Amino acid sequence: xxxxxxxxxxxxxxxxxxxxxxxxxxxxxxxxxxxxxxxxxxxxxxxxxxxxxxxxxxxxxxxxxxxxxxxxxxxxxxxxxxxxxxxxxxxxxxxxxxxxxxxxxxxxxxxxxxxxxxxxxxxxxxxxxxxxxxxxxxxxxxxxxxxxxxxxxxxxxxxxxxxxxxxxxxxxxxxxxxxxxxxxxxxxxxxxxxxxxxxxxxxxxxxxxxxxxxxxxxxxxxxxxxxxxxxxxxxxxxxxxxxxxxxxxxxxxxxxxxxxxxxxxxxxxxxxxxxxxxxxxxxxxxxxxxxxxxxxxxxxxxxxxxxxxxxxxxxxxxxxxxxxxxxxxxxxxxxxxxxxxxxxxxxxxxxxxxxxxxxxxxxxxxxxxxxxxxxxxxxxxxxxxxxxxxxxxxxxxxxxxxxxxxxxxxxxxxxxxxxxxxxxxxxxxxxxxxxxxxxxxxxxxxxxxxxxxxxxxxxxxxxxxxxxxxxx
Length: 472
Ligand code: NAD
Known about the structure:
Elements: E1 19-20, E2 22-24, E3 27-29, E4 33-38, E5 45-51, H1 54-73, H2 76-92, H3 94-105, H4 109-130, E6 148-152, H5 158-171, E7 175-179, H6 186-197, E8 205-207, H7 212-220, E9 226-230, H8 233-243, E10 249-253, E11 259-262, H9 268-280, E12 292-296, H10 300-311, H11 332-347, E13 351-353, E14 369-372, H12 379-382, E15 389-395, H13 398-406, E16 413-417, H14 421-430, E17 435-438, E18 457-458, H15 463-468
Parallel strand pairs: 1-5, 6-7, 6-9, 7-8, 9-10, 11-12, 11-16, 12-15, 14-15, 16-17
Antiparallel strand pairs: 2-3, 4-5, 10-18, 13-14
Helix pairs in contact: 2-4, 3-4, 4-5, 9-10
Bound molecules: nicotinamide-adenine-dinucleotide.
């Protein structure tokens, strides 16, 4: 066996300031308090970040309101130029941003460099293309922006979620106050600098950092016209209650418990790659992760054998090492939740397996894990774990597969593995999930709408459908 030599990306490509303020009206300003953000792979403090109180949120919304008049009146081609400029700066600075994202989030550099950053730039390019064509988008001859958008995002894809929120809002003529997650604020603050570099008029984009209270002040602010939230179903419910009856337009992108269904005629090796990508990509911190594997009984044995063999080759460790497949869990709190639900899985009788895997002593880590012998009654089959943990169930017929796949309060995504096109179409049609992948998994594209059914939320992001969320 050859050993891999370490291949660390240089951390010195990006400069991290010791402290950051709030980005309001084109300037960094202090907040009411400060908090620290840490590198989850080492627990080292990366920077001190301002926490926005109600007055700070108020200042940010007021700046966005002032900027809205001129920004919304700009001709579409002018707004497009700013978005193209932002997209190009992101491409130029993508190495810095990828390193920063891996440091603050814990995700492998291979993913931040090859998945997150190219998609972030693609979202700005794509929406730049829409900015001067909105009257042809199918929402009437003169679609109007809504006003000030209050946007709250989670920590699993910090910069990508920012792009999903800010690009369509700006393309359609809205202005923005965005709150990144408290454990991953740094790439959003870097983005504030990108906005300045692109000469974006002050107030068009404002970034307020802080935890849940800051998010609550933002979504409850009376001068916000549109609320866009990505995060947990529980917080999504609170926001839906807070916004009800206010006239604010709301989109919610929430949790998931996706079924990844493997039929007996599936190409097994390809399916195994898709299963691994489906649940271990980004440490399983993916709302659309294929966290419930449904395998047709007749191929269960060979599939599990291949899957375990493949899992034994996954490399867990330093997120900045270019050979790393699985990085750090984003926070101590998330690690505790993954541990708790995994322990419940074992206690409820499912069989737990992980490959031999040495965990670093510092930081937050969890070995890739599968549970077999799982039934619908197990909590690990029903609740979102949001970590590198796969629950494996079996089925005999397509009807049983569909029934089990749909037996969840969520409905964000699903996967089907089969050699038969007709079977894929027939099954996809019956799955209650916003995105259904066939013979692939976790593929994203800005032209394709993304969003959920049931407790996975409402509204779509991306594609032509995603523009609707920001237009009157
Ligand atoms: P979370 O709901 O706890 O936090 C998300 C964001 O909301 C954070 O910025 C947080 O500070 C803020 N927040 C917390 N309480 C708030 C409140 N009362 N009002 C306003 N804002 C508040 O979720 P998380 O743990 O950060 O993220 C994980 C969850 O996000 C998972 O359930 C995952 O499935 C979901 N997620 C969904 C998608 C999607 O597109 N559907 C994408 C990524 C993550």
